[in-house]
Amino acid sequence: MTIGTALFHTRALDGFQRMNGDISDLQNQVSSGKNDPRPSADPVRAGRLSAATEQQDRLTRYEANIAALSGRLDMADTTLDTAGDIMQRLREIALRGASDSTGPDERASLAIEARELRHSLIGAANARDATGRTLFGGFNSETDPYRDSGQGVVYAGNLGRPKLRVSESTMLDTGLPGPDVFGDPQAAGGTIFDAVDRLIAGLDRPEGPAPGMVDEIAAGVNQIADSRARIGAIANVAERQGDAVTARRVALDKVIAGLEDLDLAAATTRLKQLLVTREAAQLTFVKITQNSLFDYIR
Amino acid sequence: MSDILQIGRSGLMAARAALEVTGENIANVNTPGYRRREVTQAENVVRSPAPELRSGTGQGVLVTGVRRAFDALLAGRTREATSAHSAAETAQPYLERLEGRLMPEGGGPGPALDGFFSALGSLAATPTDTGLRNVVIETGKGLATGITDLAASLRDLGRGIADETTQNVDRANQILTGLADVQTLIRREGSGRADAGLLDRRDALLQELSGITAINVRVADNDLVTVRLGRDADGPLLLDGAQAAQIAMQDDGLIGIRPAGGGADTARRTDSGALHGLFMAAGSVSEALNRVGAWAESIATQTAALHATGADLEGRPGEALFSYDANSQVMQFRLSDPSRIAAASLALIEPATGNVGTGHVALAGPVDPAQLTAELVLRVTDGVAPSLTLTDTAGTPIASGQPDASGRITLGPLTLTAGGNLQTGDRFAIGAMPPRSGDGSVIGALADLRSDDGTGQDGFGAAYAGLLADIGAQVAAMRDRVATTAAQRDSAQQAEAAGSAVDLDAEAAKLVQQQQAYQANARVVTVARELFDTLLATL
Lengths: 298, 539
What we know:
heterodimer; A: mainly alpha; two-stranded antiparallel ribbon; B: alpha+beta; 9 helices
């Protein structure tokens, strides 16, 4: 069917423009290495990609939270290790001080050491994490939770437990409040600090501390060890969550790469094919249009 | 003898007329709307009144007219296909721009949303950090600006569509006036004798009009057309004889028609043509604008509701983070003082150290901090079918009740959520949150709003992705539509062109043929002269 000279030219022009458009689209994709991100290019792929990147954002947040959490828990663990050593030494002092064989001079020097250790213990209780927040102050994160007042060591923090989200369904404590570690001021035996103060007072007496003092300090040693175990348990959960998040991220990255990354081999093949088609179309167009019947009318 | 001269002369004239028309065809090969013409000729039969004088032959050839290759049916089909294609082709670039603007690459608010919510997430880990609080404020401003800018761009896009609509309506009215003028001339020339150029002009105008709106065209025997709006034959009249109606686009998307001879305006929807394409594009843009507005509004109200349950660094309840004005479509981030971000819960809820269970209680609704100056105690009166009682420190009950399925319970001034392993006899002390609290529960809950929080409700991210996906689907459908209607238009054009377009090769062949005819007829004239000369010489 003849379509007329003008329409033939218009059609040819449309065809070239379309081919050039396709080539430049493909060229853009090849140069970015990514598939066309617009939902209109592939609605299903774009939908999956957006769900996947949203999950990726969530995992990034969980990762950051787990890192912050683990940092704090590690710091608490180290601090409690120190506090445990201090209590251990205080137990030895209590033992030595309660012994009949200990003379007043030795007891006096034991008292001096005990006072130093008490000072270090308060320091441990007021320890801070990498961002400068207190480890054992509850929600009181800026000022020291344990203050050495005239009447012993008082707790100025609260029982709040800062939590961080580590998965869609799990929030973990970022530590323990002071009373959970160093004892409840309202409880019968008071805090560990009260016990240490009683030990020092006992060492100052000529007859030395009461024999029950050793058990009291030993109870403190156990309490610190228990708290350390609890911190360790939370850290374990955090680590498991961290592993889970890492595993999910690996899987997710693979999914995103599959959705987002261009199949280079396919794209370059298609580009090659388009270029060949364009060249063929141009050549045939020139061939067809360069000859008209007019060339043969003499 | 003079007969031969006459016959030769008529042939010569006919060949020359044919050559002229072929020349005209070649000259107009690229003229839009031009339709191929050809000379129609007939044997010239002279009936002499006296039978003895009849020679049994005719008297040469007669040019009866110039035929214009035109098929009203095929032209109508081309117009219909043009309308359909024009609708899709006009709408597509606007939809593409809409989609592009919503994408991160086009300045869409997606990255700003991510930035804001990831800042909230970071602050949850260190709630008193002023630096991170400032990041929240800056990213919050960024999100508000991003949404306001998006709304402004969408309004601009809508204005662009309205402008193009006006231009199309103006052009349609010009065409209708032009058609009325052409019809006046056609009528003046009389039935069936209208100049081909005039008819070409008429059909070119109709073709152009069909790009703007769907029209129904009926050609009468006297070459005059009646044009109606829409595809059907019962649409409102746009052109009747030399009377042209005028159209206007109404706000509701209908086309208003003011009849030529006065009378009541009518309104009709056009389902094709550029005006329909623009109407579709305007609909998509305004729907997108509404959804962006609703989205912004939900961000503003949901964050405000949650933030109101929080305490800022000085223990004051959190104020709304965003404001969104639905009329001006402007979103603003309202906090500028980093200390006013309420990261902590308004209530400090401490489980008693002697608690047996590990259950937890949290504030779930706003509360006046003044209600919390005197400490309250929450007692678990039954851990199996959880029952809770709120008392003052002296033990006087204030309120009691059972949490609903989601763990929510309102007791006196407090709305709480209670869950986990609650044991009978467990107690929780409830008081005001101290200033500069290290609690980040409220800011953490705000950060959770970004994505599906497990309650089945889409987060803000998914809501926006949903909008983008819907627009993407519209763009993809429109792209397909452009391709199919283009194919339909091409085939209609092709069918019409086969009968009416100029093909240079065909014209070249005719040129040779007609030139030969001209030369042959010239020869006949020469022979006639020679015969005459021979006759004269014998005298």
